[in-house]
Amino acid sequence: MSISFEGFTLDVERRELGQKSQLIAIGPQVFDVLVYLVKNRDRVVGKDELLDAVWGGRIVSLSTLGSHISAVRRAVGDNGDEQRLVRTVARKGFRFVGDVHETRAATERATPLLTTATEHDRLEYADKPSIAVLPFRNLSGDPQQEYFADGMVEEITTAIARIPWLFVIAPASSFTYKDKPVDLTQVARELGVRYLLEGSVRRAKNRVRISGKLIDTTNGAHLWAERFDAAFRNIFELQDRVASGVAGAIRSKLISAEISRAARKPAASLDAYDLYLRAIAEIRKPDLEGCEAALSLCGQALAIDPSCASAASLVGVVRAYQWTAGVPFTAEETAEALQLAQRAIETDNDPDVLARCGHTLAILGGAHVAAVSALEKATTLNPNSARVWGFSAAVNCYANRPDAAIAAAEQAMRLSPVDPFGYQFKFFRGFGLMLAGRYQEALEMIDRCLHERPNFHPAIRARVALCGHLNLTEQMGKWVSRQLDINPAMTISGFAAFGARHLSPGTLSRWIDGFRLAGIPEK
After folding, report:
1. What is the pLDDT of residue 238?
2. Between the CA of residue 313 and those of 166, 251, 269, 352, 421, what are the distances in Å?
């Protein structure tokens, strides 16, 4: 079937959108959204119906749907202001309102838009980042080991699919390339993905080596490569461990690649997702220097797409950074961050969003029960995210749940052993150990944190408290002096007022007892 409207041609069978003699590059799910709206143009299509029809029941955030609607409009020369073809019906859904003519598709296939690697490099994917895991090569010389290599691909695909902002091609499509010589650019074009993960499996006696490589097909860059060596005992346990490690390891590489892509886009073409990515880049700058820019970018993203939960959740992260560092902001700004966090938790199932918002509720509002609940849901939805486990460690520390905090921090450290924010994982593990009364272990972990980030203020405070708990009289003066250099006005009563907002009574008393033993002044 061929569908025509206002100079555009939509070929459903060939999955092509054209205008005059030119085909228009469009992401696979963006195409599906457009087709569904056009076919149901006689009525308003609800958001839930659209999510179910295009994503088949998979959990997808409303911000993702919003970005796809924006991509549909861009593809057909529409926008959110004019809504000439795709109209938003408040609190109802969307409706395609263009004049449509349907005909049988021509038998002659149009010339493909993309025929060379150079042309493919110019392809701009309008929807979210996309990846396919190609069949792993069996280098064992034993055909019977094919089942293990295939199972590895299945497990890794399942693990990566838990990253909600990532579109993952199903294994059934990837396996069509099994035992075939492949051109990665051609495969990426045929599957409509930006990234490919390829790998191999080699088994010798009771040992197995699994190698993986992540490739950005738009420029051929190798973003990540790793190999895993292990004893071949429990096949399923090994597959699960490697899959979790791969998913955790490549997540940060994909985010960095997406941030770089957004940074290269001209300002006029930025959508809510790209603005959110730029905001992430800003908060990665040292000494909080990018916080105000990040807040501005999140505000712009929310102005474009008020349902962009990723941007909403990042506001609370920035405010938490500022508050912990003593940067002042108003009660209204605190209320705004809490309101955005609460709304995002109620409307979005993205684990990253849930983790950030749970942390915001805890640190700015002291809502420990709601925060712990959000983090438990986040770690269940995506157990392979080091950042989610890191937020879980923090929230459980605030709530005086030391065992849960220690376990969460250890999981974060396992998933991302060279994470640029790894010092935070170490801090919260040390924090949890302090709450558990395991002061010597806590001291060792806090010292590891300070070795990576010598001026990390929360770790310096922890070092002071641990000097008190361990009665390290020879070290007390040095660390109390460092703390007072950072905050000359610090007193026990002042910290009690500071901590009362976000720390449970048990957690707060552990800090105050340590400070008092170390010699921090009462008032």
Report:
1. 67
2. 18, 18, 23, 8, 18
Please, how many CA atoms are within 13 Å of residue 37, restricted to the half-sphere of its CB?
Answer: 28
Helix axes 235-264, 402-415, angle to 10 degrees: 70
Beta bridge partners of 5: 8
- Reported as a single tens digit per residue, the pLDDT across 160-200 is 777 766 777 767 677 788 877 778 888 888 777 888 888 88
Q: Rounded CA gap, 60 and 46, in Å?
A: 15
Q: What is the CA radius of gyration of the chain?
A: 26
**E strand or H helix at 274:** helix 272-283
- Residue 18 main-chain phi, psi, to 5 deg: -130, 160
| Residue 506: other Cβ atoms inside 10 A | 12
Helix 309-324 crosses helix 62-75 at what angle (to 10 degrees)?
120
Helix axis angle for 457-469 and 422-435, nearest 10°, is 30
Q: For 25-36, what is the mean pLDDT?
A: 80
Closest CA to 361 of 326, 400, 319: 319
Neighbours of 325 (CB within 10 A): 13
pLDDT tens for residues 390-444?
999 999 999 999 999 999 999 888 877 667 788 999 999 999 999 999 999 999 9
Concatenate the DSSP letters of all residues of 341-386 into one string: HHHHHHH---HHHHHHHHHHHHHHH--HHHHHHHHHHHHHH-TT-H
**What single-letter amino acid sits at 245?**
G
Is 217:194 a contact under the CB 8 Å cutoff? yes
Strands 86-89 and 93-96, by their bridges, are antiparallel
Taking residues 262-280, report their average pLDDT. 74
Does pLDDT of 116 surpass 70?
A: no
Q: Is residue 403 within 8 Å of residue 422, measured between CB atoms?
A: no
